[in-house]
Design a protein that fits this description.
Length: 905
């Protein structure tokens, strides 16, 4: 483009021509989901579909009072929609904080435009602090550009005529004009965003477990429901005198006549509803929603409910340096005066104050003199000397920083000083004298030399040979809380990787400062030019430098292939691909729009120290839900078992109103109370496995009790009301036993909860017999009932103890080779060996279990002896003095030691 075009820019006709051709800078940033998409996402679920089908069946019977279960469905969906909307509003609000205007030259006049009004070949003017709105090429002027949000490189890049500017980067200092060369989807930042637009599957054990339970229930419900309905219809047919050829033909004739077999349909729907863990789904949504509210008070935005749980399970945390460990600003690491004799005031110059070093005087005053166009280095010096008592001297002349000279300077009454890169400020002879010192300091920081000169020429060049008076080291400002937060994750056994686009030596030095294990070993990602090299580097290094956005994503993928749960933090466009790929992504609010929109967690106050709070909330949610979910899953499992049992031995023993008593006192109330307790214990094991180990014994006990109740009722001729009463009481007894077991160790809250549950059941059974359809049992029936309760509760506690003793299996046998094959995997390769015969494997397993129990018994005995020794070692006091002894008791958090307090004299 000609020089005259630079001054004139595009004409109105040229702009309209490009708009007609579609060459406009359409907004291609990643957007948050629309309200419609959020509602559909939360509404169209398998859980909702099953409940809607059951609701339609109930409506067909005309029994509208039995539609109350839809309230749980509505509440659960509402929680999901409200949380999603809240997150959307917060992210949209953060996005509005970013500047969205640009200055362009059109028809020789500078005009302010929205970013989507820029067209191809527009001449745009950019100054300090401006964000580059579209890819462009510099046509006039010079500037230093910060591309850290795009590349992760914290060093400023010099741009001059002919240099390309990438959209999304910022002008740090200088002034230039540039011609737009890409618009819309062709921009660099848009290309990265387009790669991140695939839908990421949420990796949540709780969500996967709930989906698995709902899917399993939906598969089981169809055959069980049809069989149970057929059994109920058969009973109705018999009661009607067995008209017609069969029960099926009679049912069809009744339907054609408009007579719906309501009792059969309602009993079937009631049994099927018990198989769906409605309360568990609602409890999970409620617990996680409360966790997001708690985090919001800590300035942490959780955009997805389940991401809180995922972060608590993370075993590898990948950190971006710029914006996460560092604040994105520069800071002075230290000043290093040189003991050079003769440095002081020149002839005719005023003296530097005796209580200030020449180095401090020069740094403070050169920074103040050039502050009108302060770059990051100058701003760091201004901050450093803001509260230090260095005399302010009026500058006689000022030489601003120039990217071509690589230094800035100023003259004062006390002399003339320059500040910049040593290779550009000092002569070869002087630089050789200080080269080793510069190299030593440059290992961890950016080094600037401060030198005294005789003055400056009218063209701004130095007069005389520069004589160094000292050095100042500048580094990325490390967040004050970074070391403590990283120490926390180290203690939790989380592997930490630093992945940055910056120089690997700089990344390594910062990683060492904040305590990243293995920070001394680093790799330059430009050398990882093949997938195999990159994959191998994952196991060897924890610090990666010069990493491209695509390589960041590939590193996360390599970690996930090793079955790690990976979290990624970042704030720039260069982090978007990795954030999208990670199991849990965390972004800073001050980062790019794209990073905020793809992240599951946004740190609103840009404080990395908020991460432990997210982990704590996740742990509380997971551990409590595991305990509460056992109650809800118990009902699902025994409902399936009883439905299958009642196909052969109809009718279904529970009446709907009786299930309400069980649902509230044995499941709902204790589940919600236990689900909201404080709990910061480490998450162990699989969610579904842990829940099943607690729910299975109680479910088996309830089914066993129902079988015994039905058997006794048939033998002694008890009526249906008596049978349903016995089933209700035996089920409540097993449920209360489960609540007692999962409440260990007891706390005041748990004791109060247990008393409330028992009292509620007794009040309902004794005080409301007609409402709950409770039969008046005879003495003999009570005795039989008591025997069944004692027997089934004993079975429950025995099964629960057996489940607790089961340990995760460390070896996996493959039986496809005749006898078992043991496969051991290690770094040195795999080893395959035979496990022997089936009888031998069983014998070894029994022997191993016995040895393990013996070891556990020995440990308990040793602990008891140790506590006895502690008690005996306490000094005895005279009677009446008020001797106090320490007490060791079991608490909800583990072992609690109460120490005696000292009396103050």
């Amino acid at each position: 483009m000609a020089v005259t075009d630079i001054e004139r820019g595009l004409s109105t006709a040229e702009v309209e021509e490009r708009i007609a051709a579609g060459k406009i800078n359409r907004n291609m940033e990643l957007k948050t989901k629309s309200v419609r998409e959020l509602i559909i996402e939360n509404l169209c679920t398998l859980f909702n579909l099953i409940n809607v089908v059951l609701a339609i069946l109930v409506i067909m019977t005309g029994s509208f009072k039995n539609l109350t279960f839809l309230f749980v469905v509505f509440l659960n969906t509402a929680i999901g929609v409200i949380q999603s909307m809240r997150s959307k509003r917060m992210v949209d609000k953060l996005t509005l904080l970013t500047s969205k205007k640009a200055i362009a030259v059109r028809d020789g006049v500078e005009v302010e435009l929205d970013l989507d009004q820029i067209v191809l070949d527009d001449i745009i003017r950019l100054g300090r602090g401006d964000q580059i709105p579209a890819d462009a090429v510099v046509v006039s002027g010079e500037a230093l550009v910060n591309e850290s949000l795009l590349t992760g490189e914290s060093d400023l890049i010099k741009k001059q005529p002919g240099s390309e500017l990438m959209s999304g980067s910022f002008i740090d200092s200088g002034l230039l004009r540039a011609r737009v060369i890409h618009v819309g989807a062709d921009n660099y930042v848009a290309q990265i965003n387009n790669e991140a637009k695939y839908v990421k599957k949420v990796n949540s054990e709780i969500m996967n477990a709930l989906n698995a339970i709902v899917r399993f229930a939906s598969v089981i419900m169809i055959p069980l429901g049809l069989a149970l309905f057929a059994s109920s219809v058969s009973e109705l047919w018999d009661a009607a005198g067995a008209p017609g050829d069969s029960a099926l033909s009679w049912c069809f004739s009744e339907l054609l006549a408009g007579r719906v077999p309501s009792s059969a349909l309602l009993s079937t729907v009631g049994a099927l509803l018990g198989m769906i863990p409605q309360g568990l789904v609602l409890l999970t949504s409620s617990v996680l929603a409360i966790a997001t509210v708690r985090l919001a008070r800590r300035k942490v935005l959780a955009q997805q409910l389940y991401c809180i749980e995922t972060l608590a399970r993370v075993d590898v945390l990948c950190l971006d340096k710029t914006g996460t460990i560092t604040s994105g600003r520069m800071e002075v690491e230290g000043t290093y005066p040189l003991p050079i004799e003769g440095v002081g005031a020149g002839e005719g110059d005023a003296a530097v104050p005796v209580d200030t070093t020449v180095l401090d005087f020069a740094l403070a005053n050169v920074a103040r003199a050039t502050s009108a166009d302060a770059n990051e280095t100058c701003q760091a010096l201004l901050n450093y000397y803001a509260d230090r008592p260095v005399e302010v001297s009026e500058p006689l002349s000022v030489i601003p920083f120039s990217s071509s000279k690589k230094w800035s300077g100023a003259s004062f009454a006390q002399g003339s000083y320059v500040m910049g890169a040593a290779q550009f400020v000092l002569s070869d002879r002087v630089f050789t004298q200080v080269e080793n010192r510069v190299a030593e300091l440059a290992d961890t920081c950016r080094v600037l030399v401060v030198a005294r000169v005789d003055g400056f020429t009218p063209d701004g060049d130095m007069v005389g040979e520069a004589e160094p008076v000292g050095f100042v080291t500048i580094r990325d400002e490390i967040r004050a809380s970074a070391a403590e937060t990283i120490g926390y994750f180290n203690e939790q056994g989380v592997t930490l990787n630093v992945i940055s686009g910056d120089d690997p030596r700089t990344v390594s030095s910062i990683a060492r400062v904040v305590g990243i294990p293995g920070a001394d070993a680093y790799v330059d990602a430009t050398t990882l030019d093949t997938p195999s090299k990159l994959d191998a580097a994952v196991d060897r290094y924890h610090v990666f430098g010069r990493v491209t956005p695509q390589q960041k994503r590939e590193l996360v993928q390599a970690l996930k292939r090793r079955e790690h749960t990976v979290a990624m933090t970042g704030d720039g466009v260069n982090d978007v691909l990795a954030l999208k790929e990670a199991d849990c992504s965390v972004a800073m609010a001050a980062g790019s729009d794209a990073a905020r929109n793809v992240a599951e967690i946004v740190l609103v106050d840009n404080d990395f120290a908020s991460m432990p709070a997210v982990v704590a909330e996740g742990r509380r949610s997971i551990n409590n839900l595991q305990r509460s979910a056992a109650l809800f899953l118990t009902k699902t499992l025994f409902s399936m078992g009883l439905a299958a049992l009642c196909i052969a031995l109809p009718p279904y023993p529970f009446e709907p109103i009786q299930m309400t008593l069980i649902n509230f006192f044995c499941i709902g109330a204790p589940g919600f109370v236990l689900g909201l307790e404080p709990n910061n214990a480490r998450v162990k094991g699989s969610f579904l496995t842990n829940v099943l180990k607690r729910a299975l014994p109680a479910s088996i006990a309830v089914i066993l009790a129902a079988v015994l109740d039905i058997f006794v009722a048939r033998v002694f001729g008890f009526n249906q009301l008596t049978l349903s009463t016995m089933c209700l009481l035996t089920s409540c007894a097993s449920s209360v036993s489960l609540i007692w077991r999962i409440s260990q160790p007891l706390t005041p809250l748990r004791v109060a909860l247990f008393v409330f549950v028992v009292a509620g059941i007794l009040v309902g059974v004794i005080g409301l017999p007609e409402l709950l359809s409770i039969a008046n049992l005879s003495i003999g029936q009570m005795v039989i009932l008591a025997v069944i309760i004692v027997f089934t509760c004993s079975v429950f506690f025995k099964l629960a103890t057996m489940m607790d003793s089961l340990k995760p299996r460390r070896r996996h046998s493959a039986t496809g080779f005749g006898r078992g094959v043991r496969v051991r995997l290690g770094r040195g390769g795999g080893k395959v060996s035979s496990t022997g015969s089936t009888a031998g494997r069983i014998a070894r397993r029994v022997a191993s279990d016995m040895a393990q129990r013996r070891d556990e018994r020995n440990v308990r005995e040793a602990e008891a002896r140790a506590l006895e020794g502690v008690a005996q070692a306490q000094p005895k006091k005279k009677k009446g003095v008020g001797a106090k002894r320490s007490r060791v008791t079991k608490s909800a958090q583990g072992i609690k030691v109460s120490m005696p307090s000292k009396n103050k004299k």
